[in-house]
Every structure is written in structure tokens, then in C-alpha cells.
């Protein structure tokens, strides 16, 4: 048996969807046309009432890499967790069904960086697409290049002051190494809103190696009312409960980790909470 590393590891792309018949094809076309072909595309219909399910089935019939699953409506967090269990890739991307990949080599660039740096998390830059007026908009806040350590891979200890604000706490612009998620027992919160917060911040904190692709690889559709992410409304109580859950995990080294943080790191979460609901 060869001991050589897999130079083309399987990448699982997990896509929950709910009533996105207008956008699902664009999302899937951007994925199946990637130059990187060793993909497993997990589509989970979260109780859609439009033609999204039929569109997903059509793509499943066209591309053997696509697997479609049906479930009652559970929300994005629970659906992503279900998708992760059903997936088998060495690397995982949790993607949104109304977004799309900016270039046909996006996955190739992510996985190349992952293999070069042995990173647990790889993050790329994004651009917003305003659905209302059909215009694109840069999102420099989504990845603060000016805050990053001058290293090919870094972690919390390199810049503890900025670990929770050098990037945005959403999951779709990050490629994760599967065994990192499993070893730290990190999962999405199964709540109506803020379900990315716990998963993303906890993973950023516990990752031994985080690396960056300094190019725009993702297009984020905004001002959309009917996607599975539309439940991410501002609910102060839920947000605060998630912050408390994250505090407990961080201060105790929870989530399967062993790196309890300082009170200063937790203090940032409270500042984040106050600023978010002041907008």
C-alpha cells in the first residue's frame, strides 16, 4: 500500500436548500463545471414547496457526483449537520444554495492551498451580488487582509486580539478539513438564526492552521427573502444565547478541544453582540 498523500482528495460540498427555484441552477452549474472534478455534492431539500426539489433531481440525474436527500423543514443548522453526516469527503465546504462560485478553478485553488499548508481551514475572499438592483459590491470586511499575520498559515495564538474579527462568522466561504471538525466535535447550532456563529468562531479558535486564498472565489447573493438563510433575522435573545454557549465552550476548552481562551477573547464577543444589534 502506498504511503503517498492523496493529491486529489475528495471534497464534499454540502448545500441545504429551501424554495430557491430561481437560483439553484446557477449555484449548481458553478460547481459541476469546476476544474477540480473529485467532488461529492450533497443536496438536502429542507421541505421546499416550490420546484427546487425537481431541479435538484434533474441535476442528480445528470451528474453522478450529486446526491439529493429530502427532509421536513429543519433550518440551515440542522440541515448542514445532516449533510455532514451523509458526506465522506476529506475536505468539506458548506455552501449556500443561492450563491455561486466566482471562477471555474475556485475549488482547485482552495484544495491546492489546503495541501500546500496542511491547514484545517482555508478562507477565500468574496463579493456580494445585490439581487434587487443586479449590481456587484466588494466586501473587504469579509476577509480583513490587513489584520492577518505575515505567515502562510496561522492560528489563534498568532493574533488573539483579531481571531474573531479578521473574517465574518459565516461558513460558506471556508473549506474545512473533515478530521478537524470530527476531532473537535464541532457542529452547527440547530436554532432558527445565528446558526453559523457557534460553528465558525469555535472552529477559528481551535484550528491549528488557518490559511488564505487572497482571491475572490465566492459570490454572495444578498437581499434575498426566500432562501434557507433568510431566517437569519436579528433575534437578540437567540444571538445572546448562542454567545453564552460559545463563551462556555471557549472558556472551558469545549468542543473536544483543549485550548481555553482568556476573558479578553470572550469580552470581544460581547462587543460584537452589542455592535451587531446597534446597526
UniProtKB/TrEMBL annotation:
GO molecular function per UniProt: hexosyltransferase activity
One Pfam family matching this protein: Glycos_transf_2
Keywords: Transferase
Transferase listed as a keyword: yes
Domain Glycosyltransferase 2-like per the UniProt entry, residue ranges: 12-151
Highest taxon of source: Bacteria
InterPro entries, alphabetized: Glyco_trans_2-like, Nucleotide-diphossugar_trans
Protein name, entry field: Glycosyltransferase family 2 protein
Naturally occurring in which organism (per UniProt): Helicobacter didelphidarum
Phylogenetic classification of the source organism: Bacteria, Pseudomonadati, Campylobacterota, Epsilonproteobacteria, Campylobacterales
